[in-house]
């Protein structure tokens, strides 16, 4: 019996079959050339497909429509909405807040991280501490923001390798019997484990290396307003403990947002720390009620 040759199976990614999303054309005309946030909606009224931000909403949305890699999302989209902001900072803050609250189907970043952790030196040894246990906005001596414990320890190990620090003294491994650690014999440890350098010197080198990622405590006594303006729009972004509470057009309306219990937000910290502490935008205390 002669068997017919089997045709090779052709594998393909269905999402890569791209067709221009004609159903979205009615929503394009109103898109502004302004900074802000845009939303692709599907059939669900409560869960959007995708939330993004740009300094030019119209240009950014049109770039999505020309991207074959986003075909799967575009096929499900039924409409597009947008919220203009006074500038790029407001768009960044609003995007991060909306993604956390609405959990869009196709957004991978900026989702709430319940394992957020940092490094803290306790009794001379770095320890991993978690945001659920420690207030990151007011606790001094925290170093770095990490998505999980493994990432924190990988950073500590990288610093140890670069600075020839001792793994056992950092809690990364147990000290062998006999004094010196294994890495000392390989000249990868400067020898704090066996007296070649003092533990104080070792500690100072560790702290010096960690200084680049030291977390800044919230420096104001209460909520503040961060002023951002462009022609035709003024916004006061209300911040407390690095948490973005919302934006208002008049400073006297800011107290209405301050009833929310402030809690540390890693995305808010990353977005806000530099512009707020360097004076890039005006910062003012929210007036008392």
TrEMBL record:
A biological process (GO) of this protein is: SOS response
> Which ranges carry the GIY-YIG domain?
33-108
SMART domains for this protein:
GIYc
* Highest taxon above the source species: Bacteria
Keyword hit for Hydrolase: yes
The primary gene name is cho
Q: Name one GO cellular component term.
A: excinuclease repair complex
Q: Please name the NCBIfam families in this protein's record.
A: PRK10545.1
Q: What name appears for this protein in its UniProt entry?
A: Excinuclease cho
Q: Which UniProt keywords apply?
A: DNA damage, DNA excision, DNA repair, Excision nuclease, Hydrolase, SOS response
Recall the taxonomic lineage recorded for the source organism. Answer: Bacteria, Pseudomonadati, Pseudomonadota, Gammaproteobacteria, Enterobacterales
Instruction: Return the PROSITE patterns for the record.
Output: GIY_YIG
Q: Which GO terms describe its molecular function?
A: hydrolase activity; nuclease activity
- The answer to whether the entry has keyword DNA damage is yes
The species this protein belongs to is Erwinia tasmaniensis (strain DSM 17950 / CFBP 7177 / CIP 109463 / NCPPB 4357 / Et1/99)
